[in-house]
Design goal:
The complex is a heterodimer. Chain A contains eight helices and no strands. By secondary structure, chain A is mainly α. Chain A is rod-shaped. By secondary structure, chain B is of the alpha+beta class. In chain B, about 40% of the residues lie in helices and about 25% in strands. The N and C termini of chain B lie far apart (about 55 Å). In chain B, about 5% of the residues are buried. The chains are: A mainly alpha, B alpha+beta.
Chain lengths: ~190, ~50
């Protein structure tokens, strides 16, 4: 088909008469200008593709609905649609800016996932269960203070009241509990690190 | 030597930023073929027949 001899208006009429090839000819004729216009505004190939596609979806729907006004010329009309969609794109982006992670600053150096990996979680569970077994070897009074402090998150004042001793005694028992725990760990050559 | 370091951009590369992908055009042509607008009384209905 020699597109240069057929006017846009004629191709639009053919398309409205059901000739789908006329649309292919119109797109082929104007795709370069329309796409370049969009790309010159958004500087992103994927977004340009999307806007180009949305532009022609609008063109197709308007033509098929019989709403196209032949008074205006085809290309300026399509360019106007593309222009409006580019504006819509920037409005949307202003409301919800897209962060481009391609620069020097890496967002993931600030936003990190603090959750443990499955492997580290398993190791942590294992260490906690080992420690629970080890503390059973502590003398009763030290075990009591350590359990209240570490597992029940009680203050030394509360521990002192509950065990009916002075705060200093509770602190001392905690200190000896930790010293003895370290000794047990050393004696058994255990490595309790994640 | 210069030829080794400076690659002339091909026609394809030049058109990379100036025209949409073939897939996009194909999608639009298929969309157009599938879209039917039905007039009923004062209303219009769109149907996509794939």
């Amino acid at each position: 088909m020699n597109n240069t001899k057929v006017t846009d208006a004629s191709l639009v009429r053919d398309y409205l008469d059901g000739n789908e090839n006329a649309l292919a000819a119109l797109i082929d004729r104007h795709q370069h200008r329309i796409y370049s216009f969009i790309f010159s505004k958004v500087y992103d190939k994927d977004i340009s593709e999307d806007i180009f596609q949305d532009t022609f979806i609008k063109v197709i729907r308007t033509l098929k609905r019989g709403k196209y006004n032949e008074e205006g010329k085809f290309l300026p009309w399509v360019m106007r649609i593309a222009h409006n969609l580019v504006i819509d794109h920037f409005r949307r982006n202003k409301r919800m800016p897209k962060f481009d992670n391609s620069g020097d600053f890496n967002i993931f150096s600030v936003l990190s996932d603090d959750d443990l990996t499955a492997e580290k979680q398993m190791i942590k569970d294992q260490i906690e269960s080992d420690v629970q077994e080890l503390i059973k070897e502590l003398p009763e009074d030290q075990l009591e203070v350590l359990t209240m402090r570490i597992y029940k998150d009680m203050s030394f004042k509360e521990i002192a009241e509950r065990t009916d001793v002075s705060i200093n005694t509770a602190l001392g028992r905690m200190r000896y509990a930790l010293i003895n725990l370290r000794k047990i760990i050393e004696k058994r050559n255990l490595i309790l690190t994640n | 030597m210069g030829k080794l370091y400076f690659k002339n951009s091909s026609k394809e590369e030049k058109s990379f930023h100036s025209q949409p992908k073939k897939e996009t055009i194909e999608f639009l042509l298929n969309y157009s073929k599938a879209l039917k607008v039905i007039d009923y009384k004062n209303a219009q209905f769109e149907t996509l027949l794939n």
